[in-house]
Amino acid sequence: METGKRRQGAFKKAITEAGLTFSPDLIVEEEYSALGGARGFQEIMKRKPKPTALVVSEFNMAVGALNAARKAKVIVPDDLSMVAFNNLEFASLLNPTLTTVGLQLQHLGEEGFNLLVDRPTNEEIYQTVSRSAELFLRESSKSIRK
Taking every annotated instance into account, which residue ranges of this chain make up the domain Transcriptional regulator LacI/GalR-like sensor (predicted)? Predict the structure, then answer.
């Protein structure tokens, strides 16, 4: 998954820029599904020390992780903050509401479509289209414990 690898790279960069030490043990790879999120949650919670926050790379995985946290009696965000990629509309309907990183998918789609329409016939073009992400703070995250 190319998207997953890019997100891992961005995560590693953010950790380093924040002055923290990156460890590969901070990453759990699972399938992009609610079940994958639940399995990833269970795996990461076995580690010592237990994490204070999870950054989940896909929305359905975050739903699975939230459900697994509830079953494990882990209170989000008191025991563990959680942030997920993709600001889907029902993130604000979950309990707790889910903090998300939203990508401007409609704009990316429009730019991709315009590139296809505007390209010369039978000519392959390679162009990177990127947009800034936006953080939607909700109930699933809070300040780091000191």
Answer: 3-141
Residues 97 and 142: their CA atoms lie apart, in Å, by 12
What is the pTM (predicted TM-score) of this model? 0.79
Q: If we measure between CA atoms, which residue out of 21, 28, 14, 32 comes closest to residue 135?
A: 14
Residue 54 DSSP one-character state: E
Residue ranges and CATH numbers for the domains of the chain are: 2-104+132-136 (3.40.50.2300)
Comparing 122 with 62, the larger pLDDT belongs to: 62
Beta strand segments in 53-133, E: 53-56, 81-85, 99-102
* pLDDT higher than 90, residue 68: yes
Structure tokens at 77: 């965000």
